[in-house]
């Protein structure tokens, strides 16, 4: 067990020195095991598993632009993101691992106990087994604390979900290399560090019941806010049934505004993202060498909640947000979720609402400002600036797809699954546990 964060940093640095990782950018047409379909130019693996990169046409009535086409990752299988929790001296500790992902800007970050796609844990790659996986597969030992199917990035995945789990155990757990037990207080301290606690750890912890701690109220506090939970659910349902989202899958070769060459796939104006190839050498993984495509954003994003107190109760401003890959038209997202560079040419009236309120807020109103990576298994050097900004001047009825709700209400919706997007889940974890 670690007593001080300096010990965690020392252990983490030692694990980095103990592992050898090399990631090399490579042309897509030279990736081992991957190829462009000769007719559609869709990018796929020779096994027919893992994922494909295809084209998607989108039409919707609640975005800055009403229609567009783009490449998108199609990965129909669901993986497992699981964290083991065990009490030591009456204090819950969470089992995390120092895990390399090829897309991480610093390669090594703190991931959940288990972070594996179905192709990984069924060993399509013919590699080693996933440590601690048996604690999360039925029939499992231990008490399930949280278990829910949650969405991944709707801008880049088509309907992708992962199973988020927290399982409490009383067994003696052999501690493998690269794994450590951390308290919520220690994790909260590490959340202050840029690019250290990975996206999958943050999304799993967003579903942790309030009884385990955090900065917001206890379980059963969901109706303490401006709106009762029943009212919020009715508002959310109304948004879902009245919005329009129409999609059609396209051959990658037919996606307008994008170039599909042998080396990479990219937007004609250099915006949004590119699809690039990487060759990977990694110790401490189930497979020590592989190649894959990755999605590489063109610029850093901003993920932010405006916050205010209503009758002394903290609230966040959530939006009903539609993405290209949304499974059910929309999910609840943060107040602001975008890469500002992608909107620089739009007139002020068509820029994302509240973006300027966040970017130009005086420092005295910014209560959270930290950079975190997105999923390093599919995205190359994808970072978002996670922020919380006090905004007492925003009306209680913000209209146009936005609603004030308490963090407890948002947390309750997370535990039901399919309601809150991954960006809002990650940001809520920072608000709950960051010290």
Automatic annotation (TrEMBL):
GO MF: lyase activity
InterPro entries: EvaA-like, EvaA-like_sf
UniProt xrefs under Pfam families: Hexose_dehydrat (PF03559)
Gene3D superfamilies tied to this protein: EvaA sugar 2,3-dehydratase subunit
dTDP-4-dehydro-6-deoxy-alpha-D-glucopyranose 2,3-dehydratase domain residues: 6-208, 230-431
Listed name of the protein: NDP-hexose 2,3-dehydratase
Species of the source: Streptomyces termitum
